[in-house]
Amino acid sequence: MGSVFKKLTTRALPVGAEVFTRAGQQFARWKPAKGKTRTAKVTTGRDGSERIVTESATYFANYRDGNGFVCDVATGCRHEDAARSVLGELERRAELVKSGVMTSADDVIADNQAVPLAHHLDAYENSLRANEVGDTYRANAMRYLRRLADECGFTKLADLQREALEGWLTRQATALPNKRSMSARSRNAHRDALVTFCNWCVENRRLIVNPVQRVPKANEKLDPRRQRRALTGVELSKLLIVARLRPLAEFGRETVTQTPNSEAGPGKRKRRASWTLKPLKFDELPAAVERARERLKDNPTFLARQERLGIERALAYKVAVTTGLRRGELASLTIGQLDIDGDFPHVTLKAADEKNRQGNSIPLRRDVADELREWVASLSGCGAGSADVLAFRRDAVPVELPASTRLLKIPKAFCKILNRDLKAAGIPKRDDRGRTIDVHALRHTFGTMLSKAGVSPRVAQAAMRHSSIDLTMNVYTDPRLLDVQGAVESLPSMSDTSDPAQNRQRMAAGAESLVAMPVAITSIIPSVSQSTAVTLDAFRDKADFADTLAATAVADNEKRPLSLTDNGRPISGWRDLNPRPLAPQASALARLRYSP
Length: 596
Known about the structure:
- The chain folds into 4 domains: 1-102, no CATH class; 117-203, Tyrosine recombinase, N-terminal domain (DNA polymerase, domain 1, Orthogonal Bundle), CATH 1.10.150; 233-255 and 277-464, Orthogonal Bundle (hpI Integrase, Chain A); 503-594, no CATH class.
- The protein is built from 20 helices and 18 strands.
- It has helices at residues 80-99, 104-112, 117-130, 135-152, 162-173, 184-203, 233-249, 285-295, 300-323, 327-331, 366-382, 414-425, 441-452, 457-464, 469-475, 484-489, 500-509, 511-515, 545-550, 588-591; strands spanning 3-5, 8-12, 18-22, 25-30, 38-44, 50-55, 60-64, 70-74, 255-258, 274-277, 338-339, 346-348, 361-363, 519-522, 531-534, 565-566, 569-570, 592-594.
- Strands 2-6-5-4-3 form a 5-stranded antiparallel beta sheet, with no helix packed on it.
- Helix 7 (233-249) packs across helix 12 (414-425) and helix 14 (457-464) crosses helix 15.
- It is elongated, with a radius of gyration of 42 Å.
């Protein structure tokens, strides 16, 4: 028979408490800020300090479970009657386990239903860390789960219901006057995070079944929010030029004076004249660079730093476009991962830095490998942190650099830098179809360039490191940049002449032009295997072409039912599928065919 009780706990002696002795035992008396004066026993803690002995605020249940072990379980009840009700439920489950009606696993699952959801989320996050899941994925998953728990009212595992999740997804899909609706992709991300968490709970015997497994996904094709596009060849060239010159051209921008507001009404103060910097334009970049050189001629160190920054930024764009590396993968590259001195220059990605956690060798174009070699040589010649070299030198004196030295500095605000470069190059951020350009669009450009170059889809899939060829061909290939018109024009001609006027004349001629098309007549002699091409001219000497065809249309040409033998040769069932030679009396119409 179980029992309920309150646990004895100790805590620090309250400030201002009076310690006195009664019946040989020490007690403490104090008055809290609110309430009556309280008294408690005084004991000595492990560190030798005086502590008071108090009871827990809620009751605990002591009972023997279905496996025969004595357990102390917190009931969470402040009243003894409620605690005894919880104890009765625990004892009932123990009897079911003893009788075999309920398994021990089901008993554990029932215990987890009352545990706060926050404890399960903490355990799930530790599991993701143990499985070496990426930091970005783990942070996003936990953010989605905590948002769902807060907005859907999930406090325990028993609160996870399909109806609550579907209601939340419906509310997020509805646009409010002052709030934009959530995209289908974002809704699916929240839904997938909860489904994955519930699957983990099932595997770890915290849930019997996944309650949200059947919640349908939103159709992302009907609600695309961010559609990327690839850069054209002209746009890519302009972007590389701007990336090379803009860091220095920023210090050569001209000033523009803003005139004061002369239309200010009575009683309003007129705005004073002010000035601002003129935006950079692609055609004005060389002049801005010259002005910057003139202004910074007394600060050669800063001038060299801006020069190197432009070279590094253009090289980062070029590497991203020619390899398809993602921003995080590009930022993780170190000098030790480069192999540019062999016959096959490449860069080796670590599994921890790659999205699919596999690790791959990414081939490099030889011209890009040469530029990377010059860049590493410049770092080795002047030191990794120096910025007093204006140009690359192949004959630079090498300095031993650690293999962990970053190859390219890719800041977190790399997308904002790209936006400024696009604006200076005159490239629209968003096209007429609503598709945008961001850092990941450089990877789309790489995939599109592969398709335009005639690379086979399977090779392009391997270069993009995709698990599905559909992702390579349909998502990362921009159909607008593909030469579909040229592909159609490359098809063979469908007419017998290349002169359109002559084709129209033949079409107007009617049936005679149709009969004049090349035909081939199969010889009726089995030993002759060649075909003779004939046209209407071959029958000009005949009185009537129809009479020639009708001459062979005799009664012997009628179709007869199939028999077991044909021309004296037995038919071996369904296995003999070869066409048989035509009988001498076969119609000429049946022997006419178009030449291939």
